[in-house]
Amino acid sequence: MKTSARRWRVLGAALVAVVVAGAATACSSDDDPSDGSGGTYAIWDPYPQFNDDSMWVKLLEGCGTSAGVTVKRTGYDTTDLTNKALLAAQQNNSPDVLIIDNPVISTLAEAGVLTTTAETKLDTSAMEPNLLGAGQSGGKTYGVPIGANTLALYYNKKVLTAAGVDVATVVDWSSLTAALGKVKAAGKKGITFSAIGTEEGSFQFLPWFWGSGAQLTTLDSPQAVSALSLWTDWLKQGYAPNSVINNTQTTSWQEFASGDYAFSENGTWQLANAEKLGFEYGIIPIPARAGGTAPAPTGGEFVSIPVQSKTGRYATSQKLVACLTSADNLLNTDTTLSYIAPIAAVQDKQVAANPKLKVWVDAVKAAKGRTGDNLGTRYPKISEPLWTAMQAALSGAKNPQEALSAAQRTAAATR
Amino acid sequence: MANRTTLVPARRGEVPAAPPPVRPDRRRYRDGGRWAAWAFLAPVTVYLLAFYAYPLFRNVELSLRAYTVRSFVQGGAPFAGLDNYEKVLSDPTFMPALLHTVVFTFASLVFQFSIGMALAVFFHQHFPLSHTLRALFLVPWLLPLIVSASTWSWMLNSEAGVVNAGLGVLGVGPVNWLTSQTWSLISVIIANIWIGIPFNLVVLYSGLQAIPVTLDEAAALDGATGWQRFWRITFPLLRPVSAITLLLGLIYTLKVFDIIWIMTRGGPTDSSTTFATWSYRLGFGNLLPAFGPGAAVGNLLIVMALIFGLMYIRLQRRQQV
Predict the structure, then answer these.
(1) Domain A151-297+374-413 belongs to what topology?
(2) In this complex, do B268 and A27 lie within 8 Å of one another by their Cβ atoms?
(3) ipTM of the assembly?
């Protein structure tokens, strides 16, 4: 009797354990951000560096307050956010507002995750067309740019002076290569960039690729080969270090910060770090092959409204996005993020406040979206063969022509 | 959460309300026992199903359907049979990735095991400071992989790495450890060996302690040399421990991802790509994820590990017979 009673009790306890476990998992869905009930709106952004005390989060909360709702903000790592957004959409659990890296827009749009600006009545008329392009696919616009960054060449004044190079003479590829030669002859190192085998590598290569006149639809054109040969020759001549093959933009910046390098291809986001360099620096736009400013790819995020089952939420989400991308707030946000504003009038204000931004505003004006030119989701299928070719040529496995012909075959096959 | 608080007393209240018969006959008693057994089994079954069987099933399903980003989110990906596997098998990355996976795994295992064994025998002799030194050897194990892999990648940097600086002092020209087709795989193998030694050391060391000292002493009295004692006594007696060390090492090494990804991203081009990094690159390394082929590569990796696991079980059974 006694043992059997204990047995039953134990059985009961085991059942309770199962039920509790089940209840606990069931409960977790109560946190559903898109529940509709209550005034909490979820915003996801790729700026995990900002904590709750930062200006960015204060701005989000302020926009929430003026729209009459509470904002629940989560910051994710950029590379993580694409997968998070796809999974959330699969679970019908998307945030109300999603701030996402611009080349991802076409992928998410393809997946049917994002609403168009026409559906949610977002105004994009003030935005610069070349920046808005990255958020457009098939004639529809899927978000509002919050700011842009792009690439340019930082240079070390001391190294260039010692090598007897006048930076004003660096206007095209041949004058740049000549300058690198002088720097090397003076015992310093030429240029550092990031040619890593990821999207980051393609991003850094594109200004040279486009600056040669090449098109992403034809990876093996003579112009494209000339761009890859330029990089490969720099490595062969010792003008660029071999480590570029494995450099991220951060490690490439660290090389430049060592003070040994004359040039570094890097982005707007390094401006704050540039002020901390132990030497005087300057910035020039990346030259095109025959002179002039090469079109660099635009970086930076878009604010978009993911598809919700409760479409009534769009009205409030629209207010949040409009607030985040209003001219006044953009000035603050882009100053915080070290970005260039997507609106010409705000760009002028930025330059007025900090004349050093002039070169960046010009670079952004010349820049273009990676997924633009109507490439959309074809871009990722072109970019991967491109960075593979880049790595093959730079590591000496293939010559630039072979590498790019192989890349073109791969890109054409997966179209 | 409200459910939890209300359910618990209700269930508890039921227990006295359903008392067992005063004199339970054997059969009913056994029935109750069976129910209790099922109830005990239920949590672990639910756990296994939810966290092991379902993900595995999903991974197999992913690899058998033609997923695009759209169908991943909206559902309705058409069944594609073995298309993804065909795509993966005919991919130019397949053969290099397979070769690198095999070379990476076996080279890592051979060196991890033999160095770990040598160190275990060495520390088994209990000399002054042996405890401290042995503890130092565990450091690679305790460091987060991102720290050790980043440190290796910094040390092996072609331009500013400390290894090339050391080679320069010796008069050897710089080696492009991480950025040349020839060296990248070797570099990640070296790093992985370094990380794997402590595990082998610890397991083999505890195996050594289970061998009675008397055997070794008796052999020594009979005039066996140290070398003979190792090969004739220690090594055969360590066989079961060695087998499990190697098997676990094999499964860990097959799926090593972080070290390679942090150090070389599997590159330059595919020169240090293994199945693990390839699977990740397909699924997550591109702006446009290819979930189907990525899952297919992952499944091939699981099959490889499974084959070796079965081989081990078979070997063990034969030894027991």
Answers:
(1) D-Maltodextrin-Binding Protein; domain 2 (3.40.190)
(2) no
(3) 0.79
